[in-house]
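2024-03-11 09:14:02 INFO receiving multi-entity request
2024-03-11 09:14:02 INFO entity count = two
2024-03-11 09:14:03 INFO echoing inputs for audit
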Amino acid sequence: MSQKRSYRPLDSTRDLKRTITRYYTLTRFHRYWGRPLGRPLAWVTSGAPVELLRAFKIHPVYPEQYGAICSTGKVTAELCQAAEALGYSQDLCTYATSSIGSLTRTDIAPMKGLPRPDLLVACNNICGTVLKWYEALARHFRVPLLVLDTPYLPGEITPQAREYVVEQFKDMTSSLEKITGRRFNEGELRRVMGLSDEVTTLWREIREYCRAKPSPLNGTDLFIHMAPIVVLRGTQQGVDYYRKLKREVGQRVREGKAALENEKIRLVWDNIAIWPKLFGFFKMFTERGACFVTDTYTGGWAMEIRDGDPLESLAATYTEVFLNRSPDFRARQLIQFIRDYSADGFVMHSNRSCKPYSLVQEVIRRKVMRETGVPGLVVEADMADPRAYAEEPIRNRVQAYLEALGA
Amino acid sequence: MGKYFLGVDIGSLTTKVVLLNEAGEIAARATGRSGYGGRDVARRLTAGLLDEKGLAGSDVAVTVATGYGRITYPADREMSEITCQARGIAHLFPGARTVIDIGGQDSKVIRLLPGGKVADFAMNDKCAAGTGRFLEVMAGALEVPLEEIGDLSLQAGNQCDISSFCTVFAESEVISHVSAGAPKADILAGVCNSVAARVASMSSRTGLEPEIVFTGGVARNSGVAASLAKQLGCGLKIPEDPVITAALGAALFARGLA
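2024-03-11 09:21:47 INFO inference complete, emitting structure
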């Protein structure tokens, strides 16, 4: 597989590397500064309410992002095999199994595995697997596990659902007071939420630049430059990074500079990236002039953090995560993307690992095709496990799809 | 300048070549087992066709390659077999709106727009159930020549159930039916039915719109064709030579490129 990019690189990539390296250096050496400064380290799910944790000076670490790092580092299959040898099924989420595998295979795990957590925080707004995964981690590390249960939303959020989640936030707050020995400080929470809102707003604005024709960014840019929004929400570093990125992308739009040399087809992506084959896979599209102008996955972090009571606001934000919503909501979202970004089609990654994201795709695909008239392609693979990626059948489908779109 | 157009379809099991004359009529065609070197097989078949017609390589103006071997075959252009299949079928059956193609390792359903453009398609993924390979394995297990299993299956008195969707496990099921003393015809009826069921359920993803054309090597299997027609509840059209339709499409594209 060639790693050569057939599209214009971003200057911000240098800043991205610096920002992420700094975050992971702090993470790796947490044992030297965490305890003296009274700042515990938490492993958290991607949909955990990190603002509350940061208000308690907790350093959050993201095993899901680590799963993507393992995958681009080509060790996922071996880590999964280690977990499978312990009895975990090959059908489980490979972020979960590679994470569990990394506990014993520190010899091959990037950074010799993530540093030992002081606590674990799981929120089931993205899936149910995280509960069992984090329970396994809690047994392994013998550390407290805090769970936030966000009820699935068939329609809009109800007052009862919101109240149910707010009550849990209150419980979590008292648990965090006990664990960290710090008093809850609402002013600090508001400050962190302000920074979070700034970061997510910048991300939303950067994404919206891609409505321009030609698009200043391709899907791979979105996947790579989403790294800070996952781990640095609620921080000044996050704000600083996305201000720079926004400046560069805005400049591209003003100068009419495209991500691809020759943008002929505009597509929307659905689901997590295929990390083990990121460039090889997307090259099949870029070499035929097809650009992914937006996607549902990195769009998940363009959430709004509303004013008002901070716990109520967080309850709504984290319950309304798109993966916690109906197929109908998700179809409408995709339709809106296709219209707003003038897309010619959409590609769905049926991700063997991620059941809540993938199981309803066929229903969504049909609805979106019916309402927009643009064709949708499904490719079967896995976000992290290269064993689920069959190059030739995928190439065949992608080629046929692009031929039908006139590429 | 040559006046002939060549379509080469290097499939997982079979390689097909179709030669069109200037008027777009089939001048010659040939098929052979792909084996290890599909590209060499394609070259040999082409040389044979040209020989038979008394033509030289330079008489071929444009070549389009398709199928799994398309990328390494020295053609003027390579195209996916879905696009070529659609083109070939639309040429033979202008009223076709759905194509069901069961080949060696792929089964697919293609929905066509008038004119033969692809509107949508669905394919089997990472699994040989519902393909020609599945039938080949079962034919081997029952020691019945592949070409005979369709007709034999139609003589079934009491069709066996082959419930598994996995080729390997289905073979074990077949073997257990054999040990239980079931007649070959009954087991084969179950096998054909299983292939048809797999493809019928795939067709619900794209939707079915008549006319429906059944093509690919498995379309020659009367047992699968009968079971498919029954399960879909409608009639199927089968090309006279269902193996070469994607190669025909490739040749038609080659003619269009000239």
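2024-03-11 09:21:48 INFO post-check: Chain B has two domains: 4-86+244-257, 94-238.
2024-03-11 09:21:48 INFO post-check: The mean pLDDT of chain B is 93.
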